[in-house]
Design brief:
Distance between the termini: 50 Å
Shape: globular
Number of strands: 5
Number of helices: 6
Order of helices and strands: HEHEHEHEHEH
Helix content: 40-55%
């Protein structure tokens, strides 16, 4: 039974496929390109709890550094990192990580919620791409600051 609407399921799928293709193919002048053999150099911030899952994600890339304030709680993740990435440096303060590591491409922020914003600010200020666990921030002011910083740093 038709309702007079000519918009079919098939036409909706075709339109969605076309829109997706235009997003994928469209201009991305802001994106860094990688060669097929190049791996993303990234850091993990907060590896004792949920951030410990980032170690498994790292297995396909190049983990350069990791930070956690409680090295006893993060001992399991630190052992995994040392086994898989013997050259990775472990920090107990993510601020020092961002001060010393200049060759990073991205960072995974999985600190306790109240440190998501400050860790993300440091990462963006360093010009890094950021994956942050939720919540990214706690109020509109912080959200606006992150947007402004990301735009200023072109990340």
């Amino acid at each position: 039974m038709t309702t007079g609407n000519t918009f079919t399921r098939r036409s909706m799928l075709q339109a969605g496929a076309a829109a997706s293709a235009s997003l994928l193919i469209g201009p991305a002048s802001w994106a860094r390109t990688y060669s097929a053999n190049e791996k993303i150099r990234f850091a993990l911030v907060g590896i004792g709890g949920m951030g410990g899952k980032g170690v498994n994600v790292a297995s396909g890339e190049q983990l350069v550094a990791a930070a956690d304030v409680d090295v006893n709680h993060a001992a399991g993740s630190i052992k995994k990192i040392n086994d898989q990435f013997p050259d990775a440096k472990i920090y107990s303060d993510y601020r020092k990580l961002f001060d010393e590591q200049k060759q990073l491409d991205a960072v995974w922020v999985a600190t306790p919620d109240h440190h998501h914003f400050p860790a993300t600010v440091r990462a963006l200020d360093a010009g890094l791409a950021v994956y942050c666990e939720k919540p990214l921030c706690h109020d509109v002011y912080e959200a606006r600051k992150l947007r402004e910083l990301a735009k200023a740093k072109n990340v």
